[in-house]
Each structure stands twice: as C-alpha cells, then as structure tokens.
Amino acid sequence: MTFSSKGLLMAIGWMTVLKMVPWTDVISNAPVIADGAKKLWNAVARKSPSATDAQPALSPGADAVATLQARLAAVEATVLDLHQQMLASSELIKALADQNAQLIRRAEVHRVRLVRLAWATVVLAIVVLANLALPLVG
C-alpha cells in the first residue's frame, strides 16, 4: 500500500466518522454550551475567596495556638491558590466554548456552500451530458 492510498483510506475513515456526527444537534446545542460556559465564568469570577481573620483561641498553650494559626494561614493560602486556578480554568472553558461556537457556525456555512456546490455540479453534469447527447440524436 502506498502513502497516497493510506491517506485515502484515512480520509475515507474520517469522512465516515464525520457523517456519523449528528450535526444538527451539535449546531443547535452550540449556543447553549457557550451560554453555559459564560454563566460558569460569571459565577466563578463573582465569587471571591473570603479571607476571614480568625481570633486566637484562649488556651493555656501559646505554642498550640501559634501552630494552629500557622496551619490556618497555610490553608487560607491554599484556598486562595485553588480559587485562582478555578478562575483560570473557567476562563479557559469559556474561551474554548466560544471557539467551539465559532467553529460550529463556520462549519455550518461550509456545509451549506458544499450542498450548493454539489447541486451546481449535478446541474452542470446534466447540461454537459445533454450537450454531448444532442449531436448523437440529431
């Protein structure tokens, strides 16, 4: 099998996969997915980590209190870091959803153009065949 025949088989495989995709469902759901990503982004962006200052507990062990305060500060720093990661992740999801919506719109435009081109090709083929058949009839 040559390189070009492998490429042809791969293209046929992709065409089969693409034909199996329910494009009407994908196209109709693209705005819903983009809106959901925007809502997620807005919800996460509005929430800010609450940095509450804990009052030191009254206990006889000053070392225990200092240890607990240090652990609390470490936990608060971790929560702040996780919140920043969540913001970045939701921003990425929003951007990907927007790109997906754009790709779906472009794919639909190309699909419509391809259908029009196919019909034009069929009409042109009929005209060419009719013109080739006319001299044989007459």
Any overview of this molecule?
There is one protein chain. The protein has 138 residues and is an all-alpha fold. It has one domain. Helix content is 86%, strand content 0%. It has 3 helices and no strands. Helix 2 runs antiparallel to helix 3. The model has no long low-confidence stretch (mean pLDDT 78).
Secondary structure layout:
Elements: H1 3-20, H2 23-46, H3 62-137
Helix pairs in contact: 2-3
Write a short abstract of this structure:
The chain is an all-alpha fold and 138 residues long. It has helices at residues 3-20, 23-46, 62-137.
Which geometry do the CA atoms define? rod-shaped
Question: What's the main sheet like?
Answer: none
Helix content: over 70%
Strand elements, count:
0
Radius of gyration: 31 Å
Q: Structural class per helix/strand content?
A: mainly alpha
Number of helices: 3
β-strand amount: under 5%
Quick tags:
138 residues, mainly alpha, 86% helix
